[in-house]
Amino acid sequence: MSETTSTNEENKLPLNGRRAIPPNYSNDEENEVPEMEAFGLIPRGFNPRDYLRVVDIYMFKEPQEINKQEHHTDKYYNPKLIVRRGQAFQIQIDFNRPYKPETDQFWLEFLMGRYPQQNKGTYIPILVGNALKPGQWGAKVIHRENNSVRLSIMSSTSCIIGKFRLYVAVLTPYGILRTRRNSATDTYILFNPWCQLDAVYMDNEKEREEYVLNDVGIVFHGNVEDVKSRSWSYGQFEENILDACLFLMDKAELELSGRGNPIKICRVASAVINSRDDNGVIAGSWNNSYDYGVAPSAWTGSVDILLEYYSSKQPVRYGQCWVFAGVFNTFLRCLGIPARLITNYSSAHDNNANLRLDFFLDDEGKVDTRLTKDSVWNYHCWNEAWMTRPDLPVGFGGWQVVDGTPQETSDGMYRCGPASVQAIKHGHVCFQFDAPFVYAEVNSDIFYTRVEKNGTQVVEKIDTTRIGQLIVTKEVGGDGMVDITEEYKFREGSDEERLALETAVMYGVKKQSTQDTTYQPQTDVEMDFQAQKAVLGNDFKVTVTFRNKSRNSYTATTYLSGNIVFYTGVTKSEFKKHSFSAKLEPSSSSSFDVVIKSSEYMSELLEQASFHFFVTARINETGKILAVQRAIVLEIPTLRIKTKGELVAGKEASVIVEFTNPLKQTLENVMLRLEGPGVLRTIKKQFGRIPMNSTLTWEVKFFPMRPGLRKLIASLNSDALRHVYGELNVQIQKP
């Protein structure tokens, strides 16, 4: 009977002249598997019960049992078996009678998707043999007792990542008997950084603990003169997150057969993390209005975003670069690809990838916003994923840049990477994917070009050191910052740096030479700009300093422009204009202070409290122009978090979040969020208003889930004040 039904099924497949089988890119869909697959006519007296029959399958899938312990998957909040590829795991099969190897024959079948096929790796039959070969599918009996058999099963090191269905098949003279579909035996197989044959193998245990198993991280933001940090909850082990991450690959329509390859997974994920062109996870918004959504600064981690997307299938509003990078990091670590979040300070967003950012000045030396299209982001976050690159020459494996923030299209979609960090450092930008774009983000030069009335362009200054001057990530095993700039570029001015640049140009990175334009910099006068540490809501002063190294007296007409900017370096408004004439005595330095009042900037302020100052000075005697620009980020007050009493897993505890409003105005529409992976699910609370100088106190009762050292992360968001964070490390005792 089963024979006829299955052939009818096959006839019903949608016909398509190009392929016999429809595309297979859903891990969730299933096919019907017959419990009795007859070899022909079945004799009348046949009774399947006379043969070896499976009564029960035991998967050893509890967190404290052997499989999850040995495979480092005991933290996943998921009742099913989760193992890593290329490493043996155990299951036990209980039969209706003792198993006799001489006469009985059974095998295992792992299936994935709607159209399982052996040559695609979506149908895997495993015969029971005498020995396991490293890195190849196989099974052997390790223990027999009464009616039970315990097997050790080895998966392939290139196995597809995802959720497999398990069947046990028994051979009888008249057909194959299979176990019923039982979702309790479903098995998730993940990447294995502990296995030397896996493409994501990492040899250092401390690094694996950080880049695969750590479920909280640090996002560095602010700017290069004033690095700020905040915690982010990755939460890759939380309930339903693994399923949500597998769903992203279905959403990206990545063929199941391609899901064993970390290069392909990273490439499609960098497109599906953002909602541009594929209705992906997060909708970006950089314009300071976040109607019908959550302000990017309010998120404290990835879990809420991924779960909302998994249930609604609609883009979650809103994100900016660190949100895209935080969610991408969760995705990578969840699947077992070692990953870290990177911040590049003074990141170039170069619209035509010519390694040159053009800032145009008018004939008075003010920036012409109409002509200036490129921008310098105060910082930009992306991710690095660790893998071999068999598609590139030897030496370009290791950390690869992947970026889910939609900036420019790559092969027609908003995505970026994976691009080898090593290739970027050495200028080998010919190797896929998107290396020229990343190279420009960390290596561009800033050209200050004055446009005269008749249209002639005169380059007044070239700044070769500002872009990508600091690239950082969180340290392994701690919350500190590690400077990894040297992994992306050689020291400024070194011979190697020059060579890397020439290589990049040879491989097609466009670099305009300065010969095309007249460029004669003013060398005997230097100008610098410093700002006092400034707290949000207070006045502060900035200082312009000139050093006249010549023997001449000069006068400089100086123009200072203070702008409120998005962290992407795009100006929202100019709030301060100040010009003065500076007298520069021979061989001496002189400083000029300018006071910035809070009343000048508070009404216009954007959420990251970023200012951008442009100072231009014209030396009247020579007509030369000096230019300097600086980003300043105000100190934003923090939330205070404390706990009451002892914290014990499973017992009620309470945490208190406090905040004092430092502004000279009432805060309206205040929203607080609190979360901690393994401690508590995100809790949100709306407060109407906080008058100036008054303190808000919020007490939350909760039951900590797991013992160990954990982190609580809170954020406050309101109309006038955003990017307010607090965090607390907590030790949760065993009950």
Q: What does this entry show, briefly?
A:
This protein has 735 residues and is mainly β. It folds into four domains: 36-190, Sandwich (Immunoglobulin-like), CATH 2.60.40; 207-507, Transglutaminase-like (Coagulation Factor XIII, Chain A, domain 2); 525-633, Sandwich (Immunoglobulin-like), CATH 2.60.40; 640-732, Immunoglobulins (Immunoglobulin-like), CATH 2.60.40.10.
Sheet with most strands: 11 strands, mixed
CATH topology type of the largest domain? Coagulation Factor XIII, Chain A, domain 2
Average pLDDT value? 89
Number of helices in the DSSP assignment:
12
Protein name: Coagulation factor XIII A chain
Active site: 321, 380, 403
Catalytic activity: L-glutaminyl-[protein] + L-lysyl-[protein] = [protein]-L-lysyl-N(6)-5-L-glutamyl-[protein] + NH4(+)
Domain Transglutaminase-like: 313-406
Explain what this protein looks like in three dimensions.
- By secondary structure, the chain is mainly beta.
- It has four domains: 36-190, Sandwich (Immunoglobulin-like); 207-507, Coagulation Factor XIII, Chain A, domain 2, CATH 3.90.260.10; 525-633, Immunoglobulins (Immunoglobulin-like, Sandwich), CATH 2.60.40.10; 640-732, Immunoglobulins (Immunoglobulin-like), CATH 2.60.40.
- Helix content is 14%, strand content 39%.
- It is built from twelve helices and 41 strands.
- The strands form ten sheets. Strands 1, 2, 3, 4, 5, 6, 7, 8, 9, 10 and 11 form an eleven-stranded mixed β-sheet that branches. Strands 22-19-18-16-25-26 form a six-stranded antiparallel β-sheet, with helices on both faces. Strands 17-23-24-27 form a four-stranded mixed β-sheet, with no helix packed on it.
- A hairpin with a 6-residue loop joins strand 25 (470-474) and strand 26.
- Helix 4 packs across helix 6 (303-312).
